[in-house]
Write a structure and sequence with these properties.
This protein has 97 residues and is mainly alpha-helical. It has helices spanning 3-7, 10-22, 28-37, 49-61, 70-77, 82-96. The protein has one domain (3-96). Residues 1-6 have low confidence and may be disordered.
């Protein structure tokens, strides 16, 4: 995982995910993605390829991709395509095996 997210505690990331899900699913996925991406850069458009891969790994670690249409939602926020998100997920899962 990229240094910025490592410096920011895993507890903070867990709090972002939990607090947004407690507010309800309506808009939660967008809020979670934006708040986690802001740990890296002020705007998702400024993220590097590695930072996007790190964010996908964080989100995948919290099982958010099991929610309906999350890949499509994520591809609208981050500067990556849907196939690229699936590629990052595959790489993460291969590395964790």
């Amino acid at each position: 995982m990229q240094q910025t997210a490592t410096i920011v505690s895993e507890d903070l990331i867990k709090d972002i995910v939990t607090s947004n899900l407690l507010l309800g699913l309506d808009g939660a996925l967008e809020r979670i993605t934006l708040q986690i991406s802001q740990l890296y850069k002020p705007s998702p458009d400024m993220l590097t390829t590695q930072e996007c891969a790190d964010i996908v790994a964080i989100l995948d670690g919290h099982s958010l991709f099991s929610l309906r249409d999350y890949v499509a939602t994520l591809s609208k926020i981050l500067p990556v395509t849907r196939p690229t998100i699936y590629k990052y997920m595959r790489i993460k899962n291969e590395n964790s095996s």
